[in-house]
Specification:
Shape: globular
Number of helices: 11
CATH topology of one domain: 2-enoyl-CoA Hydratase, Chain A, domain 1
Strand content: 15-25%
CATH architecture of one domain: Alpha-Beta Complex
Number of strands: 22
CATH superfamily of one domain: 2-enoyl-CoA Hydratase, Chain A, domain 1
CATH class of one domain: Alpha Beta
Strand order of the largest sheet: 13-14-15-18-19-22
Amino acid sequence: MINCPIGGRSMLQINKLMLGMLMVFLFTVFGVTFMFHYRVKAADNTAPKTKCLDYEVMEKIYNLVKKEFVTSFDQKAFFNGAFEGIKKALKDKRITFKEIPEFTYDENKDDTENLRDFKIKLRHTVDEYKSEDLTEDDLLNAALNGMIDKLDDPYTVYLDAKEFDRLNESMSGGNFTGVGIYIELDREVDNQLTVVEPIEGTPGYEAGLKSGDWIIKIDGKSTKGVNLDNAVTQIRGPEGSIVTLTIQRKGVDEPIEFKIKRAFIHVSTVVSKIVNENVGYIKLRLFGSETNREIDQAMTDLEKKGAKAFILDLRNNGGGYVTAAVDVSSKFLKEGEDIVSIKDRFGGKNRYKSYGTVHELFPLVILVNNFSASASEITAGAVRDGKRGILLGTKTFGKGSVQTIYPLDKGGAIKITTAHYFTPRGRNINEKGLKPDIIVEMDDDLIGTDKDIQMEEAVKYLQEQIAKKNS
């Protein structure tokens, strides 16, 4: 799953990033989220902004994927994916076409020759089938998407100029225009687009959307096979405009249609309160640019109110900046302790360590569920491996890959999975997740209600730890 508030959990603020900075982007479990780590590469801003996608850009994307993708891939299948993509586009438009021969990839030729032959065949195919119904741009987009599909990686995605602009907008902290829901692709249900959590007080929440709702249509268009970036783009839009979401809800036979007016939304990354007089509760919505300051202030305020233990609630948190995960983890770890290691396919490794905390190391429970991903899993893994706290709830999502965004000279960008991350003890949690120390099963839509038994168990455990410490 990728995580982010629609129009908001993917908060990367690319325009403020230093070249090569590593971070995490929630690819929509929260609005857009599948959550991801990103290195953002600089684009050539002097390049003319014409068509985003042409044959030269296709060649550049191929070279980037070949150089940076986290694993080796079948280059013959990759090239032929272009023609499969074109055939699919023609079928979708019900346009009659003759058989398109397979591209002959010659392993005895060098890349320059194979690319030359590929571009000749691609250009010929596009010229033959372009029309008013399917323009050259449409066919090139179909070809590129067909190629990327052959990587069998849901996190490697081409973003056109509009999608990339939306991504930049949504990375501006906790402010966005949308309906106020976190979404994700639930891989346990054939990558079904799913509402992870509606944000209280937003149009989506007020309309009655619930955690676990399947979004089966957006404005009448099926979401089958949609990727998170495209879903977010479709759901977001101008303030005051209407989006129609068709929902399939557990226990309800017929789909439910919601017409929701988009609005400007601000979401604080941290919400906190005192529970049972001496337990500090902190809900972290995402790992954003303001999270370090906000969680530090929350902990200070809670300590002044008598907190002697902490609950860090990472349920439904799809991730954010890796730097923010390091900041949060450092609040609960001693200086110098390992937090996360990031390894690329060539064996290159970056290790991140705690820089220590000014806060007392009180007993700690981290609440997690199947939508806790990416930066949430980095933090949870670091705290548990450092023996500083326990995990309570259900198994986490299992998002352990790192994406790099490469802006393209003529607009748009390619997002490529380039590495995997590992917990301090060397665990690769990708598609595995983290199993809690204390498993407490509960429907996600009970989070934050008076029937939140995961919260109850966390408070109970911490009261016991406080009593032991005082005895």
